[in-house]
Amino acid sequence: MTNMDEINDTLNELCAHCDEEAERQETVLEVCRAQLHAARAHDLEQLEAKTAVLLLLIQDTANAERTRLRLLRDVAEHFRLPPGQETLTGLIAAVPAPWSARLREFQARLRAAVEETRHVVRQNRMVMRRSLSVLNRALEAAFQTAGVSRSAYDARGEARRGVAPQAAVLDQRG
Questions:
Q1: What is the pLDDT of residues 27-72, one digit of tens each?
Q2: How far apart are CA 132 and CA 10, in angstroms?
Q3: pTM above 0.85, yes or no
Q4: Which end of the chain, C or N, has fewer beta carbons within 10 A?
């Protein structure tokens, strides 16, 4: 096998890995959107299920990254890219067609998916913070209504020893 055959095989493998990564990142986006939908619907089971899927996708991404970086290094070395140019953009500029077009397409797909995912994650964060704020206000109101100080409970929610809860007073209306 010639040196050109080897680099073509490596570029083909790199492009295949890049296609898989683009699909994975697009799946991450869809899972984040599903998380947002579940959070807005207050569907905790679905939210937990989507979070578990997201964690698996992140693990897959980390595992695949090692292979992709090795392939990128091999290609960058073959085309003698200078230090600092061993990036996807530098590679696109150095490799011949059709590889440059495939890598450019991957880069565009990845950027679009990551940008949209950032937007959805920001929305998720706002919905979660809003829900947490409502929950905290409800708990605070419950504590005030019951006449119990928050300090009567420890971090696990168990009653502290030596702190007696005060009895709640109910009138005829309940």
A1: 999 999 999 999 999 899 999 999 999 999 999 999 999 999 999 9
A2: 49
A3: no
A4: C
